[in-house]
Amino acid sequence: MAKKKKPAIRTGEIAWRINFSGTLKLFLLLFAIDIFLIYFDITTGIIPPVQVTGIDAIFQTIKTILATQKYSLLLKAEGLVLLSKLAFGTISIRRTLKPIDELTNVAIQLGSQSNDFDEEKFLRLEAAIDDISPMAENARLRTGDQQLAGLELAVNNLIERMRDSYRQQTRFVSDASHELRTPIAVIKGYADMLDRWGKTDEKVLTESIEAIKTESEHMNYLVEQLLFLARGDNGKAKMTFAEFDLAQMIREVYEEYVMIDAEHTYHCKAESTVTVFGDISMLKQTARILLDNAKKYTPEGGMINISAGLDGSVPFFSVQDTGIGIDQESLPHIFDRFYRADSSRSRDTGGTGLGLAIARWIVGKHDGRFDVLTREGVGTRITVYLPKRQLSV
To answer: For labeling, which of 14, 51, 178, 193 is most exposed (least CB within 10 Å)?
Structure first.
């Protein structure tokens, strides 16, 4: 009697469930942020109080909020983000789960080769798969059968990739929640102060408004960076490539920082024309990220050098500071999302821990690479090398 084939793994349904869960969490997060912003605007009088009571007051307040241009645009933007994630997130997850489909097809092919694989081998394979514990960190498929060695390797590689992906996603969600929890807690604390004493104490009112504005700006900046990385991960970030002078771009960024940062001394070496092919706005953002880090971790009065040129025939630009440097233990992780080394990176500096992750994504899209030279107590130099290529628009 022919064996009954087991149904293939339904990765489409799995991807949809994962994406729906992620979209729901994002919706709840945005909803919580909206509630705090609305509460703040009502408390401070930005949204005028309604003149009716009871259930009519709720509908009247909602109508007033929706009529406000700020919230109208905010809700539309959030709606687009949620719809985009719901529509395209499943596609991205299915692409990640594609190896499972391939593995299923291989298993089906193995099942059809009844002359080479007897029932005992299949039972041994099934038992080995059942023995894999999803909670065990180093669990691997082991059958002890040389003929199944290739399948073992494919399964174990897939398991390891899925573990890495899950660990990264878990850490990213955890870190993002932590980063957003702090400004929300501050906003809530000052909103409570406003509710208790702000109506009569002008000092409390002023302090609370300034603190809430600062934390709101930090939260808005963090959300923008998260959305940038999310669009990049989903392949939705737009890149516009064209020829431009890298040296001229570096001179423009240098002039910006000389104007806005009087606490450090800047020096620029970018005299010759360096023609490259890339997205100038994205690469300029990368240079700004490197300069922001340099000025955060360089003591007042320190020197920051920025340069652009050719290393042989390879275009590059670099930022070198005289700051605190990076310890060797932290060096391999500086481009990880939300990574902070205790000795050099903290929320007190005003950063989000996402800048270098964004820079790495941008440089990666240009097929470029980073070179980091650092010494604790002396400073850090980060160089971005862009590939030599045939220039054409």
So the answer is: 51
